[in-house]
Amino acid sequence: MLETKLCPAIGAAEPIVRAQLQLPEAFRDGRISLATVIAPAGYGKSTVMAQWQHALEDAGVRTTWLNLDEDDSDPARFARYLGGALRRGGLDAGTALRDAQDTLLSGGIRAVLEALATELSELSHRLVLFIDDVHFVRGDEVLEVLRWLVNYAPAQVQFVLGSREDVPVPLGRLRVRRKLQEFGVEALKFSDEETAALLSSRLRAQLAAADIHSLVQRTEGWPAGLELAALILEGAQDPSAVVRAFAGNAQSVMDYLGEVLLDNLDQPTRELIFVIAQFNRIDEGLAAAACDAPLAGARLAELHARNLFLKRMDTQGRWYRFHHLVGQFFREQGERQCPELARDALIRGARHLMAQNLPLEAIHCVMRAQAWDLASRWLAENVEELVFSRGYLQTIMEWMKRLPREWADRYPEIHLQNAFATMLNGQPDQSRLILDNLAALRQRLAASAELPRSRLDQLDQELAMQEAHVAGLGDQMGDMMRISSDWVQRWPQAPRVNQGSVRNVLAFAHKCYSQIDQGLAVIAEGKRLFQGTDAHYLMSWNLAIESYLHLKGGDFSAAASAAEQLLEHMRQHLSLMHQHAGHAHAVLAFVHYERDEIAAAREHIDCISENDSYAQADYLILHHITRARLLRLDGDAEAGYQSLLKGREIADRFQLSRAALTLATEQFNWLCRDGHLDQAHELARRLQLDHWPEPDKAVSLDAEKSFRVCARLQLMRDPLDAAERLNPAITRCRDLGLARRETELLVLQVLALSAAEKPVQAQHRLAEALLLGAEHGYVRLFVDEGEVLQPVLNRLELTPDQQAAAHLLRRLTQCAVATPLKPVAAASVNGLFEELTKRERQILRRLQSDLSNREIAEAIFVSEGTLKWHLHNIYGKLGVKNRSGALVRALELGLI
Length: 896
Fold this sequence. Notes:
Elements: H1 25-28, E1 34-38, H2 45-58, E2 62-67, H3 75-88, H4 94-98, H5 100-106, H6 108-121, E3 127-132, H7 140-152, E4 157-163, H8 172-176, E5 180-183, H9 185-188, H10 192-202, H11 209-219, H12 223-233, H13 239-244, H14 250-263, H15 267-276, H16 284-291, H17 299-305, E6 310-312, E7 320-322, H18 324-337, H19 339-355, H20 359-368, H21 372-389, H22 393-402, H23 405-408, H24 412-424, H25 428-448, H26 453-473, H27 477-490, H28 496-512, H29 516-530, H30 536-553, H31 556-573, H32 579-594, H33 598-606, H34 617-633, H35 637-653, H36 657-673, H37 677-686, H38 701-715, H39 719-736, H40 739-755, H41 759-776, H42 780-783, H43 790-795, H44 806-814, H45 838-846, H46 853-859, H47 864-878, H48 883-893
Parallel strand pairs: 1-4, 1-5, 2-3, 3-4
Antiparallel strand pairs: 6-7
Protein name: ATP-dependent transcriptional regulator
GO biological process, one term: regulation of DNA-templated transcription
Pfam family, one: AAA_22
């Protein structure tokens, strides 16, 4: 595909430079962050913007350009072109936008924006980004990018937006703060004097002043109308009669002048124009193919020289396009006067584009030509690449609305990828409907014998694989296990990548059912199948699931190792902004917190997006629990509670019951530790976790949570009964190899036995828990229980065969357990008490702006509570108490 949008070239045929449209001084010196040029088609917006760009470049300011069209509402396409524009402007946007489709597949446009925010904040030079034809953008996700860019981009980045309509993002904040300069129709209209200058540069004979005034009045100063008039007046016998012949609004003037212009052209030139107008942009090769005439491409420069509104799109003169309004007129006239010519040109041009490996542009052309045979076949051949390699989810879904059902049904793989695209786009119900319809189609095809048995079997394989993926994305434990197990048994000879993909789902199902050894065996087989392939996206899932399996089993070292391998895989093959990197950071943040390595835990939490448009159960659990615990550790328990509640709200919205229940159980534990027993009991009642489960159900999700919840509730009523009832669950965890869960239940049993005044049994169980904790690095599990565990720890004497736990015991008893264990601050060589994290440095630079805390939080995509937490850490590390003090200290240290 075309990797970048092209910048405009200013040529001799462009309108004159006009004094009242010079670049504003306030923008030139950087005091204004946004300028808008808004007017209907034909008012010279692009020309004015191009002149401003050249003026800035002449002044030594770095600039870049992005022009949009009607296909750029697809977020993946927009992100790719925006990345190209920023790279031309000197930003190393390779991480943020080059592989944006990977992030869009998993984390949405929010994840792309977060990465972009970080990279723009580190831009070392001033950059002005010109974005033309903003009115073409309709998609909410692309509008969200524009909204963030113009309102929250760092101060060293400025913008100029051109649009036919009001810019569809809020600009009130910039307007109030006098950071916005606006130009509209009145500024762009031509005066009599400017019209006289324009005509004198185009016409051999001088037009009378009265005729010039009449022309301006009749066109209302519309630049495109005046350009057309100049083109027609050049050969007119009676210029005054031409001026008198037309009047009315812009469209009527365009229709009149356009028809006159066409009447003055010979038939070959008229047909060439009709063909060129069918394409948004065209070069010599495409023109020759579309016209089926080898010399047609060579005539592009000739048409440009004749001032027929054919604009150069680059300084090399390779790519051209008609002025939008004139091009639309020529396109409609071509479709009306020569429909077969227009259709054939689109099809021939599409074949040329496909041969150039531009499937997106080629399919778009045959869709317009309604050549459904080519459209459906090419879509079937390219849909997987367009979804997975390029991330064009919305484009595929839009095409599927236009492609007649009878043609799409000829290629079931189109429906398969459409189902996956809708699932990734956050439409699970629609995805389910597509799969149900596809299953019905499969039955019809089988009954009609339209497909051979081998093709039906392949369709069954692909349909079942997609069903497994949907179950996995929806965290449907039973369906995951059933569908993926059946698939592996039924299709042992399926392609290796497909086999590995389904084994990812099967291993994850084993994880959900606490079958750790089985899951690890399956994930290892999947990894072997991916070796030697380019299935990097699926391999990243493999490593993420492996890390979750080890974490569920309580093997923190293996979990951290798998997570680090995942990050390295992302660095080499995908992008660290990909949501799969978030899985690795979530695992590592949780592990470091449990090991009481708080600084490292914060570093990884800072790398995780607070993106509520992405939800996967394990990621959601680890992210919000670890973030909440760090907030609590820093003394802001209320913000911690809010993090848990936010995670529950996301889980409920995506119907992830396992995540919602786990986060609610964490909230219950906090309420108990904080002494809010009535609230804790009410929460347990609402969750239906206030009844002891049957021992044989200890492995179920609800039962596993119930044991921990009921144990804490029973601690206050009958602690000895609580201790006894925990025994089956502890045994079950030991049998399943769930070391951390066993340790947690042992600690609960220690608390129960201590409350029941059974010190010997309590110390025996505590020793067991400490041995597990010492082996696997569990520290915070003990610390976070607070002072209630301290008396038992102080009395414990380890036997000779328990000395492996001695170091952990000393660590816990030498510190006041009631006070969280935090690293001792020591002044470093740069004057900081502790190094700032990457996110903290980003926030520190934002403190220089006039943004409020709420606006800074929105600009960097965190909640106000999270920002408050970061500010607390920043002030502590700088040794100051407030924002102004932080700025003074940062300046002293050269941090900003």
